[in-house]
Amino acid sequence: MRIHLLAVDLDGTLLNSAKQITETTEAIL
């Protein structure tokens, strides 16, 4: 269960990172 939660947490972190990268890219463009 703890491993599952960790995987979900990592997915959330990756999604947040991708979102920030997208926003930054749009701001640059």
Map the helices and strands.
Layout: H1 2-28
Give an account of the 3D structure.
The chain is an all-alpha fold and about 30 residues long. It has one domain. It has one helix at about 1-29. The longest helix has 27 residues, at about 1-29. It is rod-shaped. It starts with a helix and ends with a helix. The mean pLDDT is about 85.
Shape: rod-shaped
Order of helices and strands: H
Number of domains: 1
Question: Alpha-carbon distance between the termini?
Answer: 42 Å
Helical content (DSSP H or I, runs of 4+): over 70%
How would you concisely characterize the structure shown here?
With 29 residues, the chain is mainly alpha-helical.
Q: Which terms would index this structure?
A:
mainly alpha; 93% helix; 0% strand; 29 residues; 1 helix
